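Query structure, 295 tokens:
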């Protein structure tokens, strides 16, 4: 009897050991994927790994991504994500499947490992399908916007912790990452006009062509968060308030959009040529009473 118990105990320990080893191997693919990415470059403060040669042009992308990341509200000089470029779509799909994701998007960020995996195929096909529009959005198929978008997700994870970050409603999470990723580039564009972005969002014809945009939803989230942060002056912490819902944000934005630009005294009341933080709205941003209009 004792021998039988000991034997069962041994089998159990072997089984447990095997599970631990397999789980360790599983994690190590996300933490140490380096053997699958033999090409390496350090540029603009980013560590980049690729399954094929890294072109010189990619340095310009990284400089642009750096410019975007440093403009983010949550950026405090912390260590950046390591960038893993999958030029092979098969390799990218391997990571997506392994992570248990069903949707094959532009990228996959494993925040706890500090690694982000990008699909060259998806990013470039999004750009081709949308004809590079709208600019300063995730729909234009920009590598630097894609990198900055994942960096923004990572900064949110660091700010609030993994558990809380998972509970952020998707419109805020995706909208905030898109807004943050494109804040610097839109701010540097003299032709940028936030009102016309709302106009584009509302224009059904722009979204119905077979060669049109593929994801109006993401653009809506981006525009809503941009309205809340750049026009209303909300900080990230304000935005995370549960009282700030998508429905209320939408009705506030539509009221702002349809309001006359000139008041009775001939002054410009609303209107925003370019987005930006620190634009003199801190008294609004930090005021609880202002946030309550969303509740
Ligand atoms: Zn995202």
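Result returned for the query:
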């Amino acid at each position: 009897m004792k021998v039988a118990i000991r034997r069962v105990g041994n089998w159990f320990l072997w089984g447990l050991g095997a599970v631990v080893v397999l789980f360790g191997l599983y994690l190590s693919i996300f933490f140490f994927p380096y053997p699958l990415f033999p090409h390496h470059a350090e540029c603009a403060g980013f560590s980049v790994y690729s399954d094929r040669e890294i072109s010189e042009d990619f340095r310009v992308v990284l400089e642009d991504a750096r410019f975007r990341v440093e403009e983010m509200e949550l950026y405090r000089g912390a260590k950046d994500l390591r960038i893993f470029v999958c030029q092979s779509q098969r390799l990218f799909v391997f990571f997506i499947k392994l992570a248990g994701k069903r949707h094959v998007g532009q990228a996959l960020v494993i925040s706890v490992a500090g690694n982000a995996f990008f699909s060259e195929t998806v990013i470039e096909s999004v750009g081709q399908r949308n004809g590079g529009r709208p600019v300063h959005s995730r729909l234009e198929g920009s590598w630097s916007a894609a990198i900055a978008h994942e960096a923004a997700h990572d900064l949110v994870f660091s700010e609030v912790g993994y558990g809380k970050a998972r509970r952020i409603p998707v419109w805020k999470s995706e909208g905030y990452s898109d807004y943050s990723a494109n804040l610097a580039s839109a701010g540097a564009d003299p032709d940028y006009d936030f009102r016309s972005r709302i106009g584009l969002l509302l224009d059904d014809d722009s979204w119905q062509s077979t060669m049109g945009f593929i994801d109006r939803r993401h653009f809506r989230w981006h525009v809503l968060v941009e309205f809340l942060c750049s026009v209303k002056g909300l900080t990230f912490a304000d935005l995370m308030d549960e009282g700030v819902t998508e429905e209320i944000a939408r009705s506030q934005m539509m009221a702002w959009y349809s309001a006359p630009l000139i008041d009775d005294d001939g002054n410009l009341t609303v209107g925003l040529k370019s987005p930006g933080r620190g634009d003199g709205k801190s008294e609004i941003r930090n005021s609880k009473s202002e946030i309550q209009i969303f509740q």
